[in-house]
Amino acid sequence: MDESFFFTIFEGLPRQGPGLDECTARAVHTIPDLPENPKILDIGCGSGMQTIALARLCPGAFITASDIHQPFLDDLSDRAKEVGLDNRITTVRASMEDLPFPDGSFDLVWAEGSSFIMGFSAALSSWKRLIRPGGCLALSDLVWFTHNPTEECRQFFEKEYPAMVHEEEAEKMVRDAGYTLLESFRLPDSAWWDDYYIPMSRRLEVFKEQHAGDEDAQALLASFDEEIEMFRRHSAEYGYSFFVAKKA
């Protein structure tokens, strides 16, 4: 299966992962002592719904939004221009594992729903150098809400995200990485449905028709259906939590 087809599924969606403007705002309001004109890095920004929200919540901020997929960045640039924020949002195509910025470049490093790509622990460690002393990190990641998941759910994530930990363990990982945890909170189910799974479901039906007879494409599309159905049945067992932390 061509990797570009995988990315195409996400192109044009409001979000490329779970999120909600209200949750972005809650995380921002947790952060103390942001400078008047903070420098913010949004890692794995996708098409940037949260980037736009950040720019509105921090009216003096200058935001660098990075992602590996150029069409997402182009979408964000168009969105920013439409709402008059293009003078404060800059896009950079880069891998989150090799970000081209000097140490201490940012007052705030932000990552909604993207750290799982390199792993929560690795993200905490790798991105720390980018934060100025006393600056902050805010990221959301997939975690267990229960210590005893159902067998169906456990087996699914052993395949899809074997590194997933319980939210309490994630909090400990933040502290062990040298941060002061300011707040953690769970994203509600609406953060999955409103701007992510509902529009994605519509997209999947279109692609199923367009790629009828393509077994590889149908298998990939079916895996997204399985993921959505898993959340429908088991959202009490897992989800995204936001972690807001200050660099020591």
Question: What does this protein structure show overall?
Answer:
The chain is of the alpha/beta class. It has a single domain, classed as Vaccinia Virus protein VP39 (Rossmann fold, 3-Layer(aba) Sandwich), CATH 3.40.50. Strand 1, helix 3 and strand 2 form a beta-alpha-beta unit. Helix 2 packs across helix 3 and helix 8 packs antiparallel against helix 9. It starts with a helix and ends with a strand. The model has no long low-confidence stretch (mean pLDDT 96).
Largest beta-sheet details: 7 strands, mixed
Report strand order across the widest sheet: 3-2-1-4-5-7-6
Q: What would you call the shape?
A: globular
Number of domains: 1
CATH architecture heading: 3-Layer(aba) Sandwich
Question: Brief overview, please?
Answer:
This protein is α/β, with parallel strands linked by helices and 248 residues long. Helix content is 44%, strand content 22%.
Topology overview:
Elements: H1 3-10, H2 21-30, E1 39-43, H3 49-57, E2 62-67, H4 70-82, E3 89-93, E4 106-112, H5 120-127, E5 131-144, H6 151-160, H7 167-176, E6 179-186, H8 190-210, H9 215-234, E7 238-247
Parallel strand pairs: 1-2, 1-4, 2-3, 4-5
Antiparallel strand pairs: 5-7, 6-7
List keywords for this structure.
single chain, 248 residues, alpha/beta, Rossmann fold, 7-stranded mixed sheet, 9 helices, 7 strands, 22% strand, globular
